[in-house]
Amino acid sequence: MTYEQFRSDLLRKLEEKTNDLGYKEVKYYPDGFTSEDPADLSTIRNTNVKYHRLESDILKGDFVLLMVGTEHHQICRFSVSDLYEAFGQNGWESVWTIVNSHLAESKKYAELGIMELMQKNEYDALKDKLFIRPLNFNDHRFELKENVYRRVGDMVLVLYVLGNDVWDNERHNVMSMKMPRLMMEKWGRDEDEIWDSAMTNTYMMAPPRMYLNPMDAYKPPYYKGAFMALNSDIHSISPMSIPTITTTTQMNGAIAMFYPGVKERLAELFGGDYYVAFSSIHDVRLHKKGSMSPRQILQCIKDTNNMFDPKDILSRKVYLYEAATKELKQLVV
After folding, report:
1. Number of C-alpha atoms within 13 angstroms, CB side, residue 193?
2. Of the candidates 16, 119, 129, which has an alpha carbon nearest to the alpha carbon of residue 70?
């Protein structure tokens, strides 16, 4: 089947399956499409950034949008060329597997009502759902253009809205979405106030932990490694130790380094300056200044980044925390 034939059949089948698959409307945006309608233009820009890392008001590629929900639509977006590639591998079964999977996730968001609260500017209803997640800036710079974030060297801290946070047996299922800046500005609140509240929420959701032995991080009891607690039994860190910093959930645990007071407390425990290696979005390794050269640490970061999923990469740089100035500095190595 040619691409043109597939595209025609796909649109026809999607229209036929509207009731069966549970979406309200099918929209088709062809390659080269542009519009003066603000909603369409926003969709075009976001699609180009997400799929092509391209800033343009002219759509690149053919796309299908399925509108989930009623008054406050949750959009489920598909690249026709990607679906055609799946069709070539295992026919229509592969196509419907992808469509159904994305629809199921979109429906969950719609049921949670987060978009409705955001579009109604319900800050009081949302403020306890705000949290912050660390990402690599260069890897995500295009998709972040319309969101709320703060830059830290080659990293970025991003404001999110939590939709769902549950444990399903051994799996931690978190559903969230980045906070659009335009929506946040409609709240009429001071951004620092919103940010501080979100950071406090994040701390409460996942308090910081330090593990001196890598094996300590495997299913530890809640109190293990609670170095910020008043009754903590951690009073110092050996200069030759390489502690791991994360959170109780260990998901996006590198955010612990940005909690209030954490960097300062670690300097007290180390008795001075220390290097910070952001080994992933989930954890951090520390080295007492003088125990290892920055070049050696950088090589360790490169080796770690090469071993794991690129989505987990947080930084490709070495950082130094200076106790005297209380600053975290990105080093040129």
Report:
1. 9
2. 119
